[in-house]
Amino acid sequence: MPRRIEKFGLQVSAPLHDMIEREALPGTGVASDAFWQGLSSLIHDLGPKNRALLAKRDEIQQQIDAWHRAHPGPITDMAAYRAFLTDIGYLVPQGPDFAIDTPTVDDAIAKVPGPQLVVPVMNARYALNAANARWGSLYDALYGTDALGSLPAGRGYDPARGAQVIAWAKRFLDEVAPLAQGSHADVTAYAVVNGQLQATTPAGTTGLKDPSLLAGYQGDAAAPSSVLLSHHRLHIDL
Known about the structure:
Blueprint: E1 4-7, E2 10-13, H1 14-24, H2 32-70, H3 78-87, H4 107-110, H5 124-132, H6 138-144, H7 159-176, E3 189-193, E4 196-201, E5 204-207, E6 214-220, E7 223-231, E8 234-237
């Protein structure tokens, strides 16, 4: 059984605890105790409410299952079936229009456009699919569709089409995240120096025309494995 660490009444899996402490919290301005105490408060407050909702869902499902066992075959009286679903609380009247404020919600949900998949966190494959659903490959989209004016010919890789895709993507970068000098097409390496993106080209080094477009990076700052740019609250992962 994985080792667990006690945090404000929570038994936290050691790998999750270490990831939060070493990778998630640094640089956020959120203190360790503040995070764990806040998480504990949320879980202890919302946990019982969530369990009650799940119990209600099970109760409704059992009632629906029992109805279908008692009425096998196609539904012949839709009005009566709808009345039954209303009586058990499965169908409810449409409520008034409403709005949700998001000033305290993480930007990834409140401000960054993209799919928001709700999945059971216990299923690792579902959770990964949900996280990855917010990202798509521009190269794949350009190569595999008619975005360049025509569909790819044949099943094998077409180097000429691949070169078109890369050229289009570089021009796109020049539009949304232009360099102070030169083109992304000429860049041979990216680095993050003093919190700013530095691009190496045959003419020397340069940065972004708007340094604030750098949203983050992964790996070693001198040779990052990934550079994240931001444009209109959308992100581009290089």
